[in-house]
Amino acid sequence: MHDLTRRSLLQGGTALAATGMLTGPALLDFAKAWAQSAPWKAEPGAKLTVMRWKRFVPAEDDAFNAMVAAFKTATGTEMNVFSESFEDVQPKASVAANTGSGLDLAWGLHTLPQLFPTKVLKLNDVADYLGNKYGGWTEAAAKTCKQGNDWLGIPVATVGGYLTYRKSAVEKAGFKQVPSDFPAYLELCKALKKNNTPAGFALGHATGDANAWVHNILWGHNAWTVDKDDKVIINSPETMKALDYAKQLSETFIPGVASWNDSSNNKAFLSGELFLTSNGISIYVAAKDDPSKKELAEDIGHALWPVGPIGKPTELQLAVPILAFNFCKYPNAAKAFIAFMLEKENFEKWLSGARGYLTQTLNAYDSAPVWTADPNNAVFGQASKRALPASGIGTPGEKAATAIADFIVVDMFANYCTGAKDGKAAMAEAERQLKRIYR
Q1: What is the pTM of this model?
Q2: What's the pLDDT score for residue 22?
Q3: Is the confidence at residue 65, as pLDDT, over 60?
Q4: What is the mean pLDDT of the chain?
Q5: Which of 21, 52, 56, 367 could join 282 in a cystine, given CB atoms 3.0 to 4.6 angstroms apart?
Q6: What is the pLDDT of residue 23?
Q7: Mean of the pLDDT values across residues 149-172?
Q8: What is the mean pLDDT of residues 40-44?
Q9: Transport: is it a keyword of this entry (predicted)?
Q10: Topology alike, domains 6-159+317-386 and 162-316+406-437
């Protein structure tokens, strides 16, 4: 994911205007009318402090900030919004949960609401309101936020992560497109390395990028951290097959991936060092917005994750749910803000502002204009429907969320792929860690 400069932020503002974003008086008029008819009325003198992850596509941030400003004016709610890196969102939310102060809402990653099931405001009414109005929720998104019949948060969107590649490099390697099965995909990566146009996937603590590719390989081999009854089953022949496959794949990677975070592959790809990686659409957007990278942008393609021996998609996509803490002094304002974010007049334009970086979790937005605005966007529109919850076949909840937050699967793959541990030791360590969580 990409560290963006002030210059690119200004370019993003231009892109926002080009999408026909509901802004200025039109947005404010809608917000005022909505506030009068909404099921939740913000309390007099309401103040909300909201933490979100740092944006990677500037126009998305512009759209979000425009919504915040309109909500503030329409409801009289004072809004304090600040951003943190992916890596810092969960620790800061944990501090707020433990101290009962500092935040009212946290817009975070994966199954964040499941980490604090006793500290969040139940949002059943918001989920029902939006789900009934907009065609229901995608399965994985709903599982991300639900505990039993209770909604611990609202799955605002999914950051779709798929394969970003240089079309010319793939063709030179002898492939018309990125293969859709594991064996041919490995052969592509071997050919890319041979041609000095290597692939590279994060093996460091990259919340989105590292978790995505290793879970696809693990699950694709029908290997899981836990079974449907939440019994730890990571130490298995299927896991060993997944590790062996990943090691072969990692031998084709560009050097340094073991220390990569979520921005490293963006920088390497945009600088011409990397030719195949997994990412949101932000690499393509950054290239499109930079006149000096016109040729690079035209050479970028996107592809779905390959499917493993299990025979069906096994994708871990980056859910971005929002939660409200139950110590928030203004719960009606919090619920109103969350619902306001996902109303069609806001959300479809917000998706366009995000330019494919965010994917809908409400089915009504499958036909949003962003998915046909550019052929390179279309792949990302499938992310929410193809995803599994972070728990795999297990129960979504605090334990599964902890396993993801602690990078247990990522570290198991990294230990084996780098040679730090053999397969038996890598699986045994992951097993011990998981059993401490699932006891």
Answers
A1: 0.86
A2: 53
A3: yes
A4: 92
A5: 56
A6: 59
A7: 97
A8: 97
A9: yes
A10: yes
Tokens of 51: 């933490």
Per-residue pLDDT, 157? 96
Q: Residue 417 pLDDT more than 70?
A: yes
